[in-house]
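In the lab's daily routine, each protein ends up as an entry in a very long ledger. A line of letters takes care of the sequence, but it says nothing directly about the fold. The fold becomes a row of whole numbers, each drawn from a learned catalogue of backbone shapes. The protein below has been through that process, and both of its lines are reproduced in full:
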Amino acid sequence: MPMKGSGSSEYREIDRWDDGVGWIAYPEEDMQRASHAVVGDDGGVWVFDPVDAPELDDLLAEFGDVAGVVVGLDRHKRDAAEIATRHGVSVYVPDWMAGVVEEIAAPVERFGRRLGDSGFESFVVRDASIPPWQEAGFVRRSDGTMVVPESVGTASFFRAPGETVGVHPMRRPFPPRKNLSGYDPERLLVGHGEGVLAGAARALEQALDDARRNMPGAYGRAVREMVS
């Protein structure tokens, strides 16, 4: 299977609950790039790190009008501009994130601690130049929804055998405990793979606690998948 899909594909729906839904635009790709749409406190739909797909607008319309499209990782520009332009809204980029706005062919809104009127608080997951990695997380305490674009995931290349959630292979030696601890999420949405809609707080805590201990299993699985 390819790392990333391309062309036209029928998306696979994931992570549905009353106020949101996720999808994987290319279900057969190894990276399992996941995107999410969540109804905000303002009633509009906030779309996180989206990969476009045929008939996606029909899925979004089930939840309301799109209020904004969010880029949570400097490498996750994905199809944000195309979807924002189609819906006549802006792409939202954290005000501390550099080198992203110039590559987005759509109106951009900068935001700080709060993501518009969505009810989500934004926080820094990682802001580093070596290796380049700028990542924002999002949490809405009113319903326990947490979005982490890259540092943790559920796609197979993130996880050691037996793990529900895994820390990104590059972050396992120094897992982001300080940045991701203390939020106690009820649901965890990630940028690669299906989210965790039950037991999310425990799954996240375990992923951070076991990141180093499970490095041999995680890296072994990654190598096997690369050569298979």
